[in-house]
Structure formats: C-alpha cells, structure tokens
Design goal:
The chain is mainly β. It has a single domain (15-289), classed as Sandwich (Immunoglobulin-like). Helix content is 10%, strand content 30%. The chain has helices at residues 15-27, 30-33, 68-75, 193-198, and strands at residues 40-45, 88-90, 96-99, 108-116, 120-129, 146-152, 167-173, 183-187, 200-205, 209-217, 231-241, 247-251, 264-269, 288-289. Strands 1, 2, 3, 4, 5, 6, 7, 8, 9, 10, 11, 12, 13 and 14 form a 14-stranded mixed sheet that branches. The longest helix is centred in the N-terminal third of the chain and has 13 residues, at 15-27. Residues 1-34, 279-288 and 296-301 have low confidence and may be disordered.
C-alpha cells in the first residue's frame, strides 16, 4: 500500500480490507453470527488515541516525508482524502430508506468510519446534507439530523428487539444554526446512563453538510471487549431532517434498523504500517464539543 515518491492519490485502496471482511464473514461466522445479515465492515486499530474535536485530524494516515503535496493539504485542513479508516457508504444505492424521502446525494449521503484501540471505540461520519436541522435536546435528538450506531456486543441476536445488557443504540447529532452544541445519547439498553456520561462527541459544519466524531469507552459497553479478529453485531442508521420538517431514516443493514437479527458484522483488524497516523497537521479551532448531562434516558421508537 506504500505510495511512490510524490504520489498524491487520495487515501488507501480498501479493496483488500473489504475482501478481508468478506473472507471473515464466510470463514468465521460461528453459531451466533447466523442470526445477523451478511453485511460486513472492518474497523482498523489505532495505536494513538483520537482527540474528539470534530476535525478528523487524528484520522489521517501516515504520510511519507517525500509526500509534500499530501502534507501541505493536511496542514491546510484538507484531511478527508487521507483518512486511514475503512469507509462505509450510506446512500440510497447502498442502504435502505426506511421512511421519508431522499431525493439526491446532495440532499443526503454519508461516509461513516470507525477506529478502535484497547480503551475506546471511535466513530466518525462525513455527511453531505443540504439542510442541517438540529432542534432537540437529550433523548429526543433522534428527531433531528443524527448518526445512530447499533451494537450487539455478544453477537448473539437473542431477540428481534434490543434492550439486552450487551445491546446499545448510540446517537450523535451535530451542532447547527438551531443548536450550538453537538449532543450524544444512548438508548435500548437497561442501563444507558454510564454510556451517556462517558461518551464524547464533537461536530463541525462544512460547505456541504457536517462532520461528526465520537468516542465511547469500551468499559461502559457491557459485553464489548474488542480484540484482533473478533466481531460484533453492528448497524448504522442515519436521520435526515429538513427545514420543512420532513424526517427521513436510512439504514445500512437489513430492513429494520433496530432488529439485531438483521445487523451486519463489524470485524476488528490491525492497522497496516502505511496507515499509522501522521503528525504533520495543526488542528483548527472552533468545532462544538458535547459535555454529557447527568440525566438518564429512555428508548425511542
């Protein structure tokens, strides 16, 4: 995966990582995996902690000293072409629109990324959204533009609904002109309060939509103990809220976002040496950072 001197082509080639995920889904399903869908994603291990600030600077892959063009782009804040995580594309071609209407990629589309280390699960999304609308607080953020991550940590899909101790719905909603703070929340678990208190989320508006970034400690996700080669049940859903209050919901895996038996697989893999992070950038200031509240939460339908 190493580039030649001066090679400016953006990002790594993920065909090998995708093939690895497919190979893992075929060869290592285990008895519990059969309850899930056949969709698979790969999460790359990071050996440096990610600072949650909404910039995604810490998600940049290693850039050789000879790649002066890439280093210059990153210094200017153009980091999205150099992300080292495996992309998951959310749009009307790759995912199911469960409700509402998405008229074009400019109306709504997204690329979701994950990284992991021994202490945290990191999530980020680069979202194209022509109207960023976030008007709610706390447990009601699911009614606004939001990224939702669904986890079945033991990968057993015990029921067709969540609420098991190892199952979680995590929600992250960006700041906007309506609300000056990014917010995170957790539902669909018997005890979501420790997750809400521990999660960190930040966002930044862009000329095409927004970027949102989050970190959740593994210590508060019961049943989730990542290790190389391990997998968990995993799904992504996203909300597109427009100025006319049209609420659209799109799901990566299955026909129903909240059914663990329809979740895909998320495989935890090591990072190739060429994806070790770079330290050539300077973090711009200004994104919104969420301070978690002390209140508990309830599930939403």
């Amino acid at each position: 995966m190493r580039r030649s001197t001066g090679d400016k082509r953006p990002g790594p080639d993920w065909s090998a990582a995708a093939a690895l995920g497919l190979f893992a889904a075929i060869c290592w399903p285990g008895s519990s995996a059969w309850g899930h869908s056949g969709r698979a994603a790969v999460s790359i291990k990071t050996y440096t902690p990610v600072t949650v600030d909404g910039t995604l600077d810490d998600w940049v892959r290693r850039l050789e000293a000879s790649n002066w063009a890439g280093q210059l782009e990153v210094k200017k804040g153009k980091v999205l072409e150099w992300i080292r995580a495996v992309p998951i594309y959310i749009n009307t071609l790759t995912s199911k629109v469960e409700s509402g209407r998405i008229t074009s990629p400019e109306d709504f589309s997204a690329i979701v990324y994950t990284l992991w280390d021994d202490k945290h699960f990191y999530i980020a999304a680069v979202v194209t959204d022509d109207q960023v609308v976030t008007q709610h607080q706390g447990e009601d953020i699911w009614q606004d533009d939001a990224l939702e991550i669904w986890l079945d940590c033991r990968h057993d899909a015990v029921t067709h609904t969540l609420f098991q101790e190892d199952e979680y719905q995590l929600g992250f909603s960006p700041a906007s002109k309506y609300r000056n703070q990014a917010i995170g929340w957790a539902w669909r678990n018997p005890n979501p309060k420790p997750v809400i208190d521990a999660m960190r989320v930040a966002s930044a508006l862009t000329d095409k939509g927004y970027v949102i970034e989050a970190a959740v400690p593994w210590a508060v996700l019961k049943g989730c103990q990542p290790s190389l080669g391990k997998m968990i049940g995993f799904n992504i859903s996203m909300v597109d809220k427009d100025e006319d209050q049209l609420w659209s919901h799109i799901t990566w895996s299955g026909q129903l976002h909240s059914d663990p038996s329809q979740f895909g697989h998320l495989y935890f893999q090591d990072a190739p040496v060429d994806l070790f992070p770079s330290d050539v950038f300077e973090a711009p200031a200004g994104p919104s950072v969420f301070e978690p509240p002390a209140e508990s939460s309830h599930e939403h339908e």
